[in-house]
Every structure is written in C-alpha cells, then in structure tokens.
C-alpha cells in the first residue's frame, strides 16, 4: 500500500535531483570557462549597443 505512493515519489525526487545536479554542473562549466559566453556572467561594463 505504501509502495504505490513511495516508488513514484522516489522516482520523481531522483529525476529532479539529477536535473538539478546536471544544471549546476553546466552553470559551473560556463562560469569557469573563459571561452564560453553567458548572458548572466558577463563582465562587460559597457552598455549594450543599439542599432
């Protein structure tokens, strides 16, 4: 009886934790790699150019 609720909850929890782990690894990869650009981690102090 308890397993019918615990197993799907455990699978969902594991999926969310794996996705969060993969996302944090990707964010750290962008942060520590100077060749990759990230809109959130730019160190450019100039205002954006308008056309």
From TrEMBL:
It comes from the Archaea. This is Uncharacterized protein. It comes from Haloplanus litoreus.
